[in-house]
Every structure is written in structure tokens, then in C-alpha cells.
Amino acid sequence: MRIDLHCHSTASDGTDTPAELVRNAARAGLDVVALTDHDTTRGYGEAIAALPEGLTLVTGAELSCRVDGISMHMLAYLFDPEEPALFAERELVRDDRVPRAKGMVAKLNALGVPVTWEQVERIAAGGSVGRPHVASALVELGVVPTVSDAFTEEWLADGGRAFVEKHETDPFEAVRLIKGAGGVAVFAHPAAAKRGRTVPESCIAELAAAGLDGIEVDHMDHDAEDRTRLRGLAKELGLLVTGSSDYHGSRKTVALGEYTTDPEVYGEITRRATGAFPVPGTGGA
Predict the structure, then answer these.
(1) Which of 24, 65, 93, 248 is most enclosed, with most CB atoms within 10 A?
(2) Cα 244 from Cα 218, distance rounded (Å)
(3) pLDDT band at 276 (very low <50, low <70, confident <90, very high)
(4) 246 Rama sector, left if φ>0, alpha if ψ -120 to 50, beta otherwise
(5) Of 193, 131, 128, residue with least CA distance to 162
(6) pTM here?
(7) Residue 1: strand, helix, or coil
(8) 81-115 in b/e burial notation, b at 16+ Cβ within 10 A?
(9) 3-class SS at 76?
(10) What pLDDT, in 10s, does the model give residues 49-82?
(11) What are phi and psi of 246, to 5 degrees?
């Protein structure tokens, strides 16, 4: 059983539509795929309508968080998307994305980069706009060779020359909101140091005490040493260990199913969730 619990679509910053994502997941030989767009659930309907027979969809989201000045992401699985408190927080984060992106465009213009808001808006194509869309604009203009190369201090990394802060949820509040909506909370790529500063293990321990369910260990941004250390930490703290591609379509080089989650861990996630259930495919449109 092959399970990928972290994927993005055009509802946020992926390049596959939700329908394309589930079809491509089936072609990649996955049995279970999670749709975890940034701070939005807008892709659910399209993904479910197109869900191929034999593939199960886990509905979720990746919530933007910040603690002690450090950005981090919290994966939320199988929560009730209509639960008012979590819904309101997602709206706050998402509504701040447009002025933030416009602020990054203005900073890039001041640095002599001729990026425009219209260009970024076109690239986002109606999705929840974010830094990867601005990064893609820099690639189009030939400023950087790849999206990943835009996430440096020279450009868009935390504290970088064109970085602009946005509203981000306190991760302890995120865990509380996810659990309150019947969901399961997993800390995404906690050791991804190339993205910027990472939270200390003491913070992960505090989050575990506050109800965090797991940490994403097998991920493209973690090397072998990171994975060994995180597995040991998860065992010590009683946390679930997940693995995921963090697939973004052509925006990243990682393939669907390149990293996967153990079926027993997936089973525990579904047992803990009370806000929603995995959706089995019936041969969608």
C-alpha cells in the first residue's frame, strides 16, 4: 500500500489541478493521496469528483504558522472544513496572502527586478497566492534558474531582501484548532533548514504535550541524518512518523509517491480523526 500524505494543487501553489493531481496519483501507483493545499480547502470538490477507482483521498490543508519569529507549516488531516474557528483562521491567513505578495513585488521592483503583480496573478491562476508564485515569476524573467533558487536571502527566503511577513497562526493555536475540528495535526518538514530557521526540538516537545499527533520525517528536504534524528525524537515523544512527497507538480522536482507513509501510521491517523473520513474513489469523471 503506497500512501502520500502531502500534495498541492492549483488551489494553492501546485501546477496540477485537483482533478489532475488525483489522476496523476493513480498513475503513479498510489493507493492513498492527501490534498493539503496552503490554508485552503477549495480543491476538495474537484478532486473528489475526479477521484479514480482504487485511489483514496485524504482531505487536508497545510497551515502557515510562526513561533518565536520562525515560520513553520502544520499539516491538518481529516478535519471538518466547516468548523467555524478553524475556518475563520484559514480565512485570516489566506486574506493576507494578496497584500503580502504585492509587497514582495514592490520590493523586487525596488531591487530593479521588473516583475509585475499581473504576472504573479497570472501564474497563481486563481489559486491561493504565495511565495512560490512570485518565485515562478523570477524564473520566467530569468532572474533565477529554478523556484528553489528564489528561496535564498538574496530574494524570498525568510528575512531575504524581498521577503514580506504575513499573518501566520501560532502553532499551539493551530494544534488546538485542528483538534477542535476533529482533525489530526502533523508538523511538516520540521528540519528543512534550507528554507530558513527551524524550530528547536524543545518546541516540538512542547507541541507534542499540547496535542501534536506527528512529524513528517521522510521528506525531500531532510537528509539521512535529519531522518534518523527525527525518528528518535518521535519515538521519545510518542509522535507518529509520516513520509510525503510535498508534491507541487512541475514547480518542484519531487515526484508523487517519492516518499510515503507506513500503512499502520495511516491507519492510526484515520482512527484519530473525527472531523472527516477518507474518500474512496469510484471512477471519477
Answers:
(1) 65
(2) 6
(3) very high
(4) left
(5) 131
(6) 0.84
(7) coil
(8) bebeebeebbeebbebbbebbbebbebbeeeeeeb
(9) strand
(10) 999 999 999 999 999 999 998 989 999 999 999 9
(11) 60, 45
The residue with cell 527586478 is 113
| Cα 164 from Cα 148, distance rounded (Å) | 17
CA distances to 32, 47, 57, 100 from 263, rounded to whole Å, are 10, 22, 14, 39
- Under the banding of pLDDT at 50, 70 and 90, the label for residue 159 is confident
Ordered DSSP codes for 222-278: --HHHHHHHHHHHHHHT-EEEE---B-GGGSSPPTTSS---HHHHHHHHHH--S---
**The pLDDT value given to residue 285:** 56
CB atoms < 10 A from the CB of 253, how many?
A: 11
What is the Cα gyration radius of the chain?
18
Alpha helices in the chain (DSSP H): 18-27, 44-49, 84-95, 97-110, 117-124, 131-140, 171-180, 201-209, 224-237, 263-272
